[in-house]
Amino acid sequence: MKALPNILTSMRLVLALFMFLALAAAAGAVPGLSDHLEPQTQFALERWAVYAFVIAAVTDFFDGWLARKLGAESIWGAILDPIGDKVLVCGAVLGLMALGPQPMVLLPAGLILFREFTVSALREVGAGKGVKLPVTMLAKWKTTLQMVALTGELVVAAWGAFPFLPQGPAIEGPFAIAAHSLFWLATLVTLITGAQYWEQTRKALQG
Question: Cys staple from 131: which of 18, 189, 195, 204, with CB 3.0 to 4.6 Å?
Answer without folding.
Answer: 204
